[in-house]
Amino acid sequence: MPDNEVPTLYQWLGGIDALERLTNRFYERVRTDALLGPVFAHMDAAHPRHVAAFLAEVLGGPSLYSSQHGGHPHMIRQHLNRHLDQARRRRWVALLLETADDLGMPDDPEFRSALVGYLEWGSRLAVINSQPGATVDEDAPMPQWGWGEVKGPYVA
User: What are the UniProt keywords, alphabetically (predicted)?
Assistant: First the structure.
């Protein structure tokens, strides 16, 4: 990458290998977490890898999640009728960030601000999409997140 080119968040954090380490360790911790464990009790063994692919695409990496799993509409479907709440959402975000720290992922202010921004935005959408009556827009674009994203209001 040229010196004057700003890396994507995906590049900055270390690519798919770093994301797979993060999601593998994170979901190991989720299994034993009192609040999150029951939500993920029947999690498929491939779940951490799928989440790593989703995050990779969102953060500027390859579009593997879209090509192999169905993109954002598929992710939305995974949350339908899960009845997630704010306590579980907050714990999910906190545990993911703790895991990132434990693994020595970048903690510079710019990266961590962008990561936290996406995790807050995305996890709040997951809560909305997990409530009764939520539907899937089959044309929902894959979120794209960078160094200074601001999204407009969520309109169902």
Answer: Heme, Iron, Metal-binding, Transport
